[in-house]
Amino acid sequence: MKEKIDIVELMRARLGDNFRVGDKLLDIRRNADSIGEMARKQLDENGEFAKVYAESIAEWMDSIANLANDAVALLIENQKNTN
């Protein structure tokens, strides 16, 4: 597994307008990591928590989708500003 990039590395990259895009992508990774961690923990649980678990996953996935959309919108905005 590759080493995870942190905010300090992102700042050092001097991305200019694309810094916000990188920050959004790090947010997406953090959310995905949280989902994976919860999923692994729930593997040992019984069906008693299935509904709560499913609701949490749905909310997190909505959040991840929104973050990804924000990142793409920033990329498009930044590209328009360079032309």
Secondary-structure-derived class: mainly alpha
What separation lies between the terminal Cα atoms? 37 Å
- The ordered H/E elements are HHH
Contiguous helical run count: 3
Instruction: Give me the Rg, rounded.
Output: 16 Å
What would you call the shape?
elongated
Mean pLDDT: 80
Fraction of helical residues: over 70%
The protein's oligomeric status is single chain
Q: Uncertain spans, ≥5 residues at pLDDT below 50? A: none
How many domains is the backbone divided into? Answer: 1
Q: Which strand-content bin applies to the residues?
A: under 5%
* Largest sheet data: none
Query: How many distinct beta strands?
Result: 0
Please provide a written account of the structure.
- Helix content is 76%, strand content 0%.
- The protein has helices spanning 7-12, 19-42, 50-82.
- The radius of gyration is 16 Å and the shape is elongated.
- The mean pLDDT is 80.
- Helix 2 (19-42) runs antiparallel to helix 3.
- It has one domain.
- It has 83 residues and is mostly helical.
